[in-house]
Write a structure and sequence with these properties.
By secondary structure, this protein is mostly beta strands. It has helices at residues 3-10, 278-283, 287-297, 299-317, and strands at residues 16-21, 26-28, 32-39, 47-52, 57-59, 66-68, 71-75, 82-87, 93-102, 104-108, 113-115, 119-125, 134-139, 144-146, 153-155, 158-162, 169-174, 180-189, 193-196, 202-203, 208-214, 223-227, 230-235, 239-242, 251-257, 260-261, 265-267, 269-270. Strand 25 and strand 26 (260-261) form a beta hairpin. The two termini are 21 Å apart.
Length: 318
């Protein structure tokens, strides 16, 4: 590479770049992302900004995101879809990144097991217009159908269902173009005992309570709780609390008490995106850009390289 070519690479118009971890642009609601302003030199004075699809322009820490050093940690919802970038106090900009938070199926109440004839509301949460999105299901008996056919009552973007055991299965939202939301498994039990556990993913370090419920009551019957087939705890209150859930708590849970045994349900634990360390940020730079930053920071080194190149050219020509 010629000196002029190398130096031309140093004429980088962007003095900062926006790093995204995990490195993707498509997310579901409640997923976490870490956005980092990778600045040559001091990052003081640089802010992470966004312009959402609804036209809201704002900085991290103002109604969204949690600033941490030069990073911003965001637990995403559909209204967070938009363009993100870093900006200095003098108006310099980094590259911009588009982030889209896709349709999300929410469940109210948020649990995966129900007794026969209990009701559940399933809602398709979509950024912008929810028209064209339909709640679908695939039951354990192999029936695939839409809300409002022979089950459920459509109400706006929600579907209200009075449950029977035949309603057990997988539920999701789908657009006319084939886009999908997350999927939720629902079990309707004809027996006397269910396990109340979250149907939606829980975030690492959150507090989670599992309840062993006797039909019609939140009874105080002593309950045994099992994870992946092994007894993990016995609680006289019928409830088991995990004060700070971790990824190792993810698994298949059930409970038993003197009145019977619940079905099993899977609990998913999501881990927030890690904040890239300074070493990772340096290693993520391209070699030419890394060298450029060294040269800019050391004019003496730059002069030395120029003299060496001129010397090589003189000997070659001679």
């Amino acid at each position: 590479m010629s000196l002029s070519r190398f130096l031309s690479l140093c004429q980088i118009p962007l003095s900062a770049s926006l790093g995204v971890s995990p490195d993707k642009s498509q997310f579901f609601k409640y997923e976490s992302v870490s956005l980092s302003c990778e600045v040559q030199g001091k990052s003081a004075g640089w802010r992470l900004k966004r312009n959402t699809v609804s036209g809201e322009r704002s900085d991290c820490g103002r109604r969204w995101g949690k600033p941490q050093g030069s990073s911003c940690n965001v637990s995403l919802i559909p209204s967070h879809s938009g363009v993100y970038w870093c900006e200095s106090g003098s108006g310099e900009h980094s590259n911009a990144v588009n982030i889209t938070v896709h349709a999300f199926l929410s469940v109210s109440p948020d649990r995966s097991q129900f007794f026969k004839y209990e009701s559940v509301s399933l809602s398709c949460e979509v950024q912008g217009n929810s028209a064209g999105w339909i709640l679908k299901r695939y039951t354990v008996s192999g029936e695939r159908s839409d809300c409002g056919g022979n089950w459920g009552k459509q109400q706006g973007s929600s579907c209200n269902v009075s449950l029977t055991p035949s309603h057990s299965g997988k539920y999701w939202c789908e657009s006319g173009s084939g886009e999908h939301s997350n999927a939720v498994n629902i079990t309707v039990h004809a027996g006397a005992v269910i396990l109340e556990s979250p149907a939606l993913p829980v975030t690492e370090r959150d507090s989670v309570t599992l309840s062993c419920r006797y039909q019609g009551t939140l009874s105080n019957l002593t309950a045994d709780f099992y994870k992946d087939g092994s007894l993990i705890r016995t609680e006289t209150t019928g409830e088991m609390t995990i004060p700070a859930v971790s990824k190792s708590d993810e698994g298949l849970y059930k409970c038993t008490n003197s009145e019977g045994e619940s079905p099993e349900s899977w609990m998913t634990v999501t881990v927030p995106a890690p904040i890239p360390s300074p070493a990772v940020l340096v290693l993520s730079m391209s070699l030419p850009r890394l060298l450029c930053s060294l040269l800019v920071g050391s004019p003496y080194l730059l002069v030395t390289i120029i003299l060496m190149v001129k010397g090589c050219r003189s000997r070659t020509q001679g």
